[in-house]
Amino acid sequence: MPSPTKRVYDTVVVGGGPAGATAAAVLARAGRDVLLLDKAGRIKPCGGAIPPRLIRDFDVPDHLIVARARSARMISPADERVDMPIEGGFVGMVDREDFDAWLRSRAEQCGASRATGTFVDFARDRNGVATLTYEEKATGERRDVQARTVIGADGANSRVAQHAMPEMKRPPFVFAYHEIIKSPEIGATDFDPTRCEIFYQGRLSPDFYAWVFPHGDKTSVGVGSAQKGFSLRNATAATREASGLSQATTIRREGAPIPMRPLRRWDNRRDVVLAGDAAGVVAPASGEGIYYAMLSGEFVAEAVDGYLATGKAKALTTARKRFMKAHGRVFWVLGLLQYFWYCNDKRREQFVSLCRDPDVQRLTWQAYMNKELVRQDPMAHLRVFKKDLAHLFGMAVPHK
After folding, report:
1. CA 223 from centroid of its chain's CA atoms
2. Higher confidence at residue 5 or residue 20?
3. What pLDDT is attached to residue 188?
4. Is 24 helix (H, G, I), strand (E, B) or coil?
5. Is residue 216 a contact partner of residue 62, using CB atoms and an 8 Å limit?
6. Which of 208, 297, 298, 379 could bridge across to 23 with cysteines, CB 3.0–4.6 Å?
7. 0.85 surpassed by pTM
8. pLDDT band for position 2 (50/70/90)?
9. Strands 8-14 and 142-152
10. How far is CA 352 from CA 74, 91, 136, 228, in A?
Protein backbone atom coordinates (compact mmCIF):
# COMPACT_ATOMS: atom_id res chain seq x y z
CA MET A 1 0.00 0.00 0.00
CA PRO A 2 1.14 3.59 -0.61
CA SER A 3 2.26 5.74 2.25
CA PRO A 4 -0.72 6.91 4.36
CA THR A 5 0.63 10.46 4.27
CA LYS A 6 0.64 10.60 0.49
CA ARG A 7 -2.63 11.57 -1.19
CA VAL A 8 -3.70 9.06 -3.80
CA TYR A 9 -6.44 10.27 -6.13
CA ASP A 10 -9.07 7.88 -7.34
CA THR A 11 -8.38 9.21 -10.84
CA VAL A 12 -6.05 11.65 -12.52
CA VAL A 13 -7.44 12.88 -15.85
CA VAL A 14 -4.72 14.17 -18.19
CA GLY A 15 -6.19 16.61 -20.70
CA GLY A 16 -9.02 19.08 -20.16
CA GLY A 17 -10.68 19.09 -23.57
CA PRO A 18 -14.25 17.83 -24.09
CA ALA A 19 -13.36 14.19 -23.33
CA GLY A 20 -11.22 14.81 -20.23
CA ALA A 21 -13.40 17.52 -18.74
CA THR A 22 -16.51 15.38 -19.24
CA ALA A 23 -14.85 12.34 -17.64
CA ALA A 24 -13.72 14.42 -14.65
CA ALA A 25 -17.20 15.85 -14.15
CA VAL A 26 -18.90 12.44 -14.31
CA LEU A 27 -16.48 10.90 -11.80
CA ALA A 28 -16.65 13.88 -9.45
CA ARG A 29 -20.44 13.68 -9.46
CA ALA A 30 -20.11 10.02 -8.52
CA GLY A 31 -18.15 11.05 -5.42
CA ARG A 32 -14.70 10.10 -6.68
CA ASP A 33 -11.55 12.05 -5.76
CA VAL A 34 -10.48 13.41 -9.16
CA LEU A 35 -7.62 15.60 -10.35
CA LEU A 36 -8.03 17.23 -13.78
CA LEU A 37 -4.64 18.13 -15.23
CA ASP A 38 -4.66 20.45 -18.23
CA LYS A 39 -1.90 22.57 -19.69
CA ALA A 40 -4.37 25.31 -20.74
CA GLY A 41 -3.80 27.83 -23.50
CA ARG A 42 -3.80 25.13 -26.18
CA ILE A 43 -6.79 25.30 -28.52
CA LYS A 44 -7.34 22.45 -30.95
CA PRO A 45 -8.16 23.36 -34.57
CA CYS A 46 -11.84 22.58 -34.85
CA GLY A 47 -14.84 23.70 -36.85
CA GLY A 48 -16.75 23.90 -33.58
CA ALA A 49 -19.97 22.21 -34.74
CA ILE A 50 -22.11 20.51 -32.10
CA PRO A 51 -25.37 18.69 -32.96
CA PRO A 52 -28.63 19.08 -31.04
CA ARG A 53 -28.11 15.72 -29.36
CA LEU A 54 -24.89 16.96 -27.72
CA ILE A 55 -26.58 20.14 -26.52
CA ARG A 56 -29.40 18.07 -25.06
CA ASP A 57 -27.43 15.15 -23.60
CA PHE A 58 -24.70 17.24 -21.99
CA ASP A 59 -26.76 20.26 -20.89
CA VAL A 60 -24.82 22.86 -22.89
CA PRO A 61 -26.13 26.34 -21.99
CA ASP A 62 -27.35 28.68 -24.68
CA HIS A 63 -24.69 31.34 -24.07
CA LEU A 64 -21.98 29.00 -25.40
CA ILE A 65 -23.71 28.72 -28.79
CA VAL A 66 -22.08 31.57 -30.71
CA ALA A 67 -23.86 30.81 -33.98
CA ARG A 68 -26.61 28.59 -35.37
CA ALA A 69 -25.88 27.00 -38.72
CA ARG A 70 -29.08 26.36 -40.67
CA SER A 71 -27.56 25.02 -43.87
CA ALA A 72 -24.40 23.58 -45.37
CA ARG A 73 -23.04 24.42 -48.81
CA MET A 74 -21.10 21.67 -50.59
CA ILE A 75 -18.69 22.99 -53.24
CA SER A 76 -17.36 20.67 -55.95
CA PRO A 77 -14.08 20.77 -57.91
CA ALA A 78 -15.92 22.47 -60.78
CA ASP A 79 -17.30 25.00 -58.27
CA GLU A 80 -20.82 23.57 -58.40
CA ARG A 81 -22.55 24.65 -55.18
CA VAL A 82 -25.17 22.51 -53.49
CA ASP A 83 -27.04 23.92 -50.51
CA MET A 84 -28.35 21.48 -47.89
CA PRO A 85 -30.84 23.32 -45.63
CA ILE A 86 -31.57 22.00 -42.15
CA GLU A 87 -35.34 21.76 -41.97
CA GLY A 88 -36.71 22.79 -38.60
CA GLY A 89 -33.43 22.82 -36.72
CA PHE A 90 -29.86 24.04 -36.50
CA VAL A 91 -26.30 22.94 -35.75
CA GLY A 92 -24.78 24.80 -32.84
CA MET A 93 -21.39 26.42 -33.31
CA VAL A 94 -19.01 26.95 -30.38
CA ASP A 95 -15.66 28.60 -29.93
CA ARG A 96 -13.39 25.94 -28.45
CA GLU A 97 -11.46 28.48 -26.40
CA ASP A 98 -14.58 29.33 -24.38
CA PHE A 99 -16.33 25.97 -24.67
CA ASP A 100 -13.43 23.92 -23.30
CA ALA A 101 -12.81 26.41 -20.48
CA TRP A 102 -16.47 26.15 -19.46
CA LEU A 103 -16.31 22.34 -19.45
CA ARG A 104 -13.26 22.44 -17.15
CA SER A 105 -15.01 24.88 -14.82
CA ARG A 106 -18.06 22.62 -14.72
CA ALA A 107 -15.86 19.67 -13.72
CA GLU A 108 -14.44 21.77 -10.89
CA GLN A 109 -17.94 22.80 -9.78
CA CYS A 110 -18.84 19.09 -9.67
CA GLY A 111 -16.00 18.54 -7.21
CA ALA A 112 -12.93 17.77 -9.30
CA SER A 113 -9.59 19.28 -8.25
CA ARG A 114 -7.64 21.08 -10.98
CA ALA A 115 -3.99 21.55 -11.83
CA THR A 116 -2.54 23.53 -14.70
CA GLY A 117 0.60 22.05 -16.20
CA THR A 118 2.13 19.71 -18.73
CA PHE A 119 2.26 15.95 -18.24
CA VAL A 120 5.89 14.78 -18.25
CA ASP A 121 6.25 11.19 -17.09
CA PHE A 122 4.45 8.07 -15.94
CA ALA A 123 5.93 5.61 -13.47
CA ARG A 124 4.95 3.33 -10.61
CA ASP A 125 6.09 3.29 -7.03
CA ARG A 126 7.36 0.12 -5.37
CA ASN A 127 3.76 -0.91 -4.65
CA GLY A 128 2.72 -0.51 -8.27
CA VAL A 129 0.69 2.67 -7.76
CA ALA A 130 0.64 4.95 -10.81
CA THR A 131 2.74 8.09 -10.31
CA LEU A 132 2.42 10.98 -12.75
CA THR A 133 4.90 13.82 -13.04
CA TYR A 134 3.80 17.17 -14.43
CA GLU A 135 5.39 20.56 -14.84
CA GLU A 136 3.37 23.27 -13.18
CA LYS A 137 2.61 26.11 -15.59
CA ALA A 138 2.85 28.97 -13.08
CA THR A 139 6.17 28.02 -11.48
CA GLY A 140 7.83 25.54 -13.84
CA GLU A 141 8.29 23.18 -10.90
CA ARG A 142 7.84 19.44 -11.34
CA ARG A 143 5.28 17.76 -9.15
CA ASP A 144 4.29 14.13 -8.63
CA VAL A 145 0.76 12.89 -8.07
CA GLN A 146 -0.46 9.35 -7.48
CA ALA A 147 -3.67 7.75 -8.62
CA ARG A 148 -5.52 4.46 -8.51
CA THR A 149 -6.55 5.05 -12.14
CA VAL A 150 -5.45 7.35 -14.98
CA ILE A 151 -7.49 8.67 -17.90
CA GLY A 152 -5.46 9.78 -20.90
CA ALA A 153 -7.47 12.43 -22.74
CA ASP A 154 -4.43 14.31 -24.00
CA GLY A 155 -4.97 14.26 -27.76
CA ALA A 156 -4.04 12.22 -30.80
CA ASN A 157 -0.36 12.08 -29.87
CA SER A 158 -1.23 11.07 -26.31
CA ARG A 159 1.84 11.08 -24.08
CA VAL A 160 -0.09 9.04 -21.53
CA ALA A 161 -0.58 6.33 -24.15
CA GLN A 162 3.08 6.50 -25.16
CA HIS A 163 4.20 5.99 -21.57
CA ALA A 164 1.57 3.57 -20.27
CA MET A 165 0.65 1.69 -23.46
CA PRO A 166 3.75 1.85 -25.68
CA GLU A 167 2.78 -1.30 -27.57
CA MET A 168 -0.37 0.31 -29.00
CA LYS A 169 -0.17 1.20 -32.69
CA ARG A 170 -1.48 4.68 -33.39
CA PRO A 171 -4.31 5.10 -35.93
CA PRO A 172 -3.98 6.99 -39.24
CA PHE A 173 -4.14 10.78 -38.95
CA VAL A 174 -5.48 13.71 -40.87
CA PHE A 175 -3.51 16.85 -40.10
CA ALA A 176 -5.84 19.79 -39.55
CA TYR A 177 -4.99 23.48 -39.71
CA HIS A 178 -7.30 26.45 -39.42
CA GLU A 179 -7.26 30.19 -39.01
CA ILE A 180 -9.75 32.00 -36.81
CA ILE A 181 -10.63 35.23 -38.55
CA LYS A 182 -12.90 38.17 -37.87
CA SER A 183 -16.23 37.55 -39.59
CA PRO A 184 -17.00 40.05 -42.36
CA GLU A 185 -19.97 42.37 -42.26
CA ILE A 186 -23.14 40.81 -43.65
CA GLY A 187 -23.48 41.77 -47.30
CA ALA A 188 -19.81 42.63 -47.72
CA THR A 189 -19.18 39.26 -49.42
CA ASP A 190 -21.15 36.09 -50.13
CA PHE A 191 -20.49 35.11 -46.50
CA ASP A 192 -23.55 33.85 -44.62
CA PRO A 193 -23.25 33.64 -40.79
CA THR A 194 -25.81 30.80 -40.73
CA ARG A 195 -24.15 28.62 -43.38
CA CYS A 196 -21.21 26.22 -43.21
CA GLU A 197 -19.22 25.86 -46.43
CA ILE A 198 -17.37 22.67 -47.28
CA PHE A 199 -14.99 22.51 -50.25
CA TYR A 200 -14.47 19.09 -51.87
CA GLN A 201 -11.66 20.15 -54.17
CA GLY A 202 -8.37 18.34 -54.70
CA ARG A 203 -6.45 21.60 -54.96
CA LEU A 204 -7.56 22.50 -51.44
CA SER A 205 -7.29 19.00 -49.99
CA PRO A 206 -6.18 15.89 -51.93
CA ASP A 207 -7.88 13.47 -49.54
CA PHE A 208 -10.20 15.36 -47.17
CA TYR A 209 -11.87 18.78 -47.41
CA ALA A 210 -11.57 22.49 -46.64
CA TRP A 211 -14.13 24.45 -44.63
CA VAL A 212 -15.56 27.81 -43.65
CA PHE A 213 -17.54 27.56 -40.39
CA PRO A 214 -19.12 30.70 -38.86
CA HIS A 215 -18.69 31.39 -35.13
CA GLY A 216 -20.63 34.60 -34.71
CA ASP A 217 -18.14 37.47 -34.79
CA LYS A 218 -15.40 34.94 -35.68
CA THR A 219 -15.08 32.33 -38.42
CA SER A 220 -12.99 29.17 -38.72
CA VAL A 221 -11.36 28.62 -42.12
CA GLY A 222 -9.30 25.47 -42.43
CA VAL A 223 -8.12 22.38 -44.23
CA GLY A 224 -7.40 18.77 -43.41
CA SER A 225 -5.13 16.29 -45.21
CA ALA A 226 -3.15 13.16 -44.46
CA GLN A 227 -0.81 13.72 -47.40
CA LYS A 228 2.71 14.51 -46.22
CA GLY A 229 4.22 17.59 -47.81
CA PHE A 230 0.86 19.13 -48.69
CA SER A 231 0.83 22.77 -47.56
CA LEU A 232 -2.14 23.28 -45.27
CA ARG A 233 -1.32 26.98 -44.85
CA ASN A 234 -1.31 27.58 -48.59
CA ALA A 235 -4.53 25.63 -48.99
CA THR A 236 -6.16 27.64 -46.20
CA ALA A 237 -5.08 30.87 -47.90
CA ALA A 238 -6.65 29.57 -51.14
CA THR A 239 -9.85 28.68 -49.27
CA ARG A 240 -10.04 32.18 -47.84
CA GLU A 241 -9.56 33.63 -51.31
CA ALA A 242 -12.26 31.37 -52.79
CA SER A 243 -14.65 32.54 -50.05
CA GLY A 244 -13.84 36.24 -50.36
CA LEU A 245 -12.16 36.23 -46.94
CA SER A 246 -8.56 37.01 -47.87
CA GLN A 247 -8.66 40.47 -46.33
CA ALA A 248 -10.36 39.44 -43.09
CA THR A 249 -8.33 40.00 -39.92
CA THR A 250 -6.62 36.84 -38.65
CA ILE A 251 -7.07 36.34 -34.92
CA ARG A 252 -5.13 33.11 -34.37
CA ARG A 253 -3.76 30.05 -36.16
CA GLU A 254 -3.83 26.44 -34.91
CA GLY A 255 -2.87 22.98 -36.15
CA ALA A 256 -3.00 19.41 -34.84
CA PRO A 257 -3.27 15.78 -35.95
CA ILE A 258 -6.79 14.33 -36.01
CA PRO A 259 -7.16 10.52 -35.70
CA MET A 260 -9.40 8.78 -38.22
CA ARG A 261 -10.03 5.43 -36.57
CA PRO A 262 -10.82 4.27 -33.01
CA LEU A 263 -8.01 2.33 -31.35
CA ARG A 264 -8.53 -1.42 -31.07
CA ARG A 265 -7.96 -1.15 -27.33
CA TRP A 266 -8.41 1.83 -25.02
CA ASP A 267 -7.00 0.46 -21.76
CA ASN A 268 -3.79 -1.13 -20.49
CA ARG A 269 -5.71 -3.93 -18.73
CA ARG A 270 -4.61 -2.52 -15.39
CA ASP A 271 -5.40 1.08 -14.47
CA VAL A 272 -5.07 3.37 -17.51
CA VAL A 273 -7.77 4.08 -20.10
CA LEU A 274 -7.91 6.54 -23.03
CA ALA A 275 -10.66 8.88 -24.19
CA GLY A 276 -11.35 11.38 -26.97
CA ASP A 277 -8.69 11.87 -29.64
CA ALA A 278 -6.31 9.70 -27.62
CA ALA A 279 -8.74 6.82 -28.21
CA GLY A 280 -9.22 7.78 -31.87
CA VAL A 281 -12.90 8.73 -31.67
CA VAL A 282 -13.15 11.20 -34.54
CA ALA A 283 -15.64 10.40 -37.29
CA PRO A 284 -14.11 9.56 -40.69
CA ALA A 285 -15.24 11.66 -43.68
CA SER A 286 -16.62 14.47 -41.51
CA GLY A 287 -13.82 14.84 -38.98
CA GLU A 288 -16.44 15.51 -36.30
CA GLY A 289 -15.09 14.90 -32.83
CA ILE A 290 -16.70 16.97 -30.05
CA TYR A 291 -19.78 14.81 -29.51
CA TYR A 292 -17.83 11.57 -29.77
CA ALA A 293 -15.14 12.90 -27.43
CA MET A 294 -17.67 13.82 -24.76
CA LEU A 295 -19.54 10.53 -25.10
CA SER A 296 -16.27 8.58 -24.83
CA GLY A 297 -15.38 10.65 -21.74
CA GLU A 298 -18.70 9.71 -20.16
CA PHE A 299 -18.30 6.01 -21.00
CA VAL A 300 -14.69 5.96 -19.78
CA ALA A 301 -15.64 7.66 -16.51
CA GLU A 302 -18.37 5.12 -15.88
CA ALA A 303 -15.96 2.28 -16.67
CA VAL A 304 -13.39 3.72 -14.24
CA ASP A 305 -16.07 4.11 -11.59
CA GLY A 306 -16.92 0.44 -12.08
CA TYR A 307 -13.29 -0.54 -11.71
CA LEU A 308 -12.88 1.53 -8.56
CA ALA A 309 -15.96 -0.13 -7.08
CA THR A 310 -14.97 -3.72 -7.91
CA GLY A 311 -11.19 -3.72 -8.33
CA LYS A 312 -11.67 -5.67 -11.57
CA ALA A 313 -9.62 -4.23 -14.45
CA LYS A 314 -11.97 -5.88 -16.94
CA ALA A 315 -14.43 -3.09 -16.16
CA LEU A 316 -12.19 -0.69 -18.09
CA THR A 317 -12.90 -2.53 -21.34
CA THR A 318 -16.60 -1.65 -21.17
CA ALA A 319 -16.00 1.93 -22.36
CA ARG A 320 -14.85 0.94 -25.84
CA LYS A 321 -17.43 -1.85 -26.11
CA ARG A 322 -20.26 0.55 -25.35
CA PHE A 323 -18.94 3.18 -27.73
CA MET A 324 -18.48 0.80 -30.65
CA LYS A 325 -21.87 -0.79 -30.07
CA ALA A 326 -23.47 2.65 -30.29
CA HIS A 327 -21.40 4.16 -33.11
CA GLY A 328 -19.13 1.54 -34.68
CA ARG A 329 -21.44 1.06 -37.67
CA VAL A 330 -21.63 4.81 -38.28
CA PHE A 331 -17.82 5.04 -38.26
CA TRP A 332 -17.62 2.10 -40.67
CA VAL A 333 -20.09 3.72 -43.11
CA LEU A 334 -18.29 7.08 -42.93
CA GLY A 335 -14.95 5.36 -43.51
CA LEU A 336 -16.30 3.79 -46.70
CA LEU A 337 -17.69 7.14 -47.78
CA GLN A 338 -14.31 8.81 -47.36
CA TYR A 339 -12.48 5.98 -49.11
CA PHE A 340 -14.74 6.01 -52.19
CA TRP A 341 -15.67 9.66 -52.61
CA TYR A 342 -12.57 11.60 -51.53
CA CYS A 343 -10.00 9.84 -53.71
CA ASN A 344 -10.11 12.09 -56.80
CA ASP A 345 -11.92 15.11 -58.23
CA LYS A 346 -14.12 13.06 -60.55
CA ARG A 347 -15.63 11.25 -57.59
CA ARG A 348 -15.81 14.44 -55.54
CA GLU A 349 -17.83 16.00 -58.35
CA GLN A 350 -20.18 13.03 -58.29
CA PHE A 351 -20.43 13.15 -54.51
CA VAL A 352 -21.44 16.81 -54.44
CA SER A 353 -23.96 16.15 -57.20
CA LEU A 354 -25.42 13.31 -55.16
CA CYS A 355 -25.92 15.75 -52.27
CA ARG A 356 -28.65 17.49 -54.29
CA ASP A 357 -30.93 14.54 -53.74
CA PRO A 358 -33.71 15.22 -51.18
CA ASP A 359 -33.42 11.70 -49.71
CA VAL A 360 -29.68 12.13 -49.23
CA GLN A 361 -30.16 15.49 -47.53
CA ARG A 362 -32.92 14.28 -45.23
CA LEU A 363 -31.17 11.08 -44.15
CA THR A 364 -27.83 12.88 -43.73
CA TRP A 365 -29.24 15.55 -41.43
CA GLN A 366 -31.36 13.10 -39.44
CA ALA A 367 -28.32 10.90 -38.83
CA TYR A 368 -26.05 13.83 -37.97
CA MET A 369 -28.48 15.64 -35.68
CA ASN A 370 -29.45 12.49 -33.74
CA LYS A 371 -26.12 10.65 -33.95
CA GLU A 372 -27.51 7.38 -35.24
CA LEU A 373 -28.21 5.72 -38.57
CA VAL A 374 -31.78 6.27 -39.68
CA ARG A 375 -33.47 2.89 -39.85
CA GLN A 376 -36.94 4.10 -40.73
CA ASP A 377 -38.03 4.59 -44.34
CA PRO A 378 -36.21 1.66 -45.97
CA MET A 379 -37.35 2.76 -49.43
CA ALA A 380 -35.43 6.03 -49.04
CA HIS A 381 -32.30 4.05 -48.18
CA LEU A 382 -32.84 1.87 -51.25
CA ARG A 383 -33.22 4.92 -53.49
CA VAL A 384 -30.04 6.46 -52.08
CA PHE A 385 -28.18 3.17 -52.51
CA LYS A 386 -29.17 2.93 -56.18
CA LYS A 387 -28.21 6.55 -56.85
CA ASP A 388 -24.95 6.05 -54.97
CA LEU A 389 -24.04 3.11 -57.21
CA ALA A 390 -25.03 5.03 -60.33
CA HIS A 391 -22.72 7.90 -59.41
CA LEU A 392 -19.93 5.59 -58.32
CA PHE A 393 -19.90 3.71 -61.63
CA GLY A 394 -20.38 6.78 -63.78
CA MET A 395 -23.95 6.02 -64.86
CA ALA A 396 -25.26 9.31 -63.52
CA VAL A 397 -24.48 12.68 -65.04
CA PRO A 398 -23.49 15.36 -62.52
CA HIS A 399 -26.07 18.13 -62.28
CA LYS A 400 -25.25 21.27 -64.20
Report:
1. 15
2. 20
3. 67
4. helix
5. no
6. 297
7. yes
8. very low
9. parallel
10. 6, 20, 49, 26
